[in-house]
Design brief:
Layout (H helix, E strand, L loop, with lengths): L6 H23 L4 H11 L4 E4 L6 H11 L5 E4 L6 H14 L4 E4 L3 H7 L10 H17 L4 E3 L16 E4 L2 E4 L7 H10 L60
Parallel strand pairs: 1-2, 1-4, 2-3, 4-6
Antiparallel strand pairs: 5-6
Helix pairs in contact: 2-3
Length: 253
């Protein structure tokens, strides 16, 4: 008689199935225009899809497209406690501009902050741990109710994103990058065509905007994300890495 599958076996089966689903969607829909990808995905994952937005340098494009499809689609914003004031103001302005109705502000757990970053200066000594407690764990909580989520990531943003697919599996969920294949020109053209508001920090050379202690203006000739954690080997905060879901059960965060 066959043994009953253990929980870990079932988890592996689920993740294998999701990986196949993501690959299938990428083959079927990945070549479409971004707004068509959003529309088809919103239908595919009806009631179980959200968008994650940093309200950063180029967030307006994805959010505008979403508002054209469904203004009530949940938008997850990670309030790390270290944002530029301009980012918070930009968030509120875009929400009003687009009539978005379901903004979910997710914050770090206070008990976790007291345990690992009681002085608020963890970023000075351990950027990975700071991102874990302020971004990775909160995002895991934010996306937990959903089967899929949209991001605004693009291949041109950094050398680490050049092979970015439109649909990708992250554990038991699917991450959707509708703008993956867009260029800087595509983005600029869309911003102008729809007269979209720009994050005020862009005018000062901030082409990728995160928390203020770890973000600086981009230098000429560098990629858009070079101003993030400048001087460190770090290139991603962790919310876009495949181990995201580990933080749902990792008591060390």
């Amino acid at each position: 008689m066959l043994a009953k599958p253990r929980p870990l076996d079932r988890t592996g089966e689920v993740e294998t199935g999701v990986a196949a689903e993501a690959a299938g969607l990428d083959a079927l829909l990945g070549h479409l225009k971004p707004i068509e990808i959003i529309e088809r995905s919103a239908h595919e994952f009806r009631g179980a899809v959200a968008a994650v937005s940093s309200f950063g340098a180029d967030s307006a494009v994805l959010l505008h497209m979403i508002s054209e499809i469904d203004r009530s689609l949940p938008i997850i914003f990670l309030d790390t406690g270290k944002h530029f004031e301009e980012t918070l103001g930009y968030r509120d302005a875009l929400v009003a501009d687009f009539g978005l109705t379901d903004i979910r502000v997710i914050k770090p757990e206070e008990t976790a902050l007291q345990r690992v970053d009681p002085t608020g200066r963890l970023h000075e000594t351990d950027t990975d741990s700071c991102c874990n407690v302020r971004k990775v764990e909160p995002l895991a909580r934010g996306i937990e109710p959903f089967r899929a989520w949209f991001t605004g990531r693009k291949r041109f943003q950094a050398s680490t994103r050049t092979a970015l697919p439109v649909f990708e599996a992250v554990g038991s969920r699917i991450r959707i990058n509708p703008l993956a294949h867009w260029t800087t020109s595509d983005q600029a053209d869309y911003m102008r065509a729809h007269a979209l508001r720009e994050n005020p920090l862009v005018a000062y050379g901030y082409l990728s905007i995160g928390c203020f202690p770890c973000t600086q203006p981009v230098q000429p000739g560098e990629d858009a994300r070079s101003g993030r954690w400048a001087g460190h080997a770090k290139t991603e905060c962790g919310i876009h890495l495949s181990g995201l879901e580990k933080s749902l059960t990792d008591a060390s965060l």
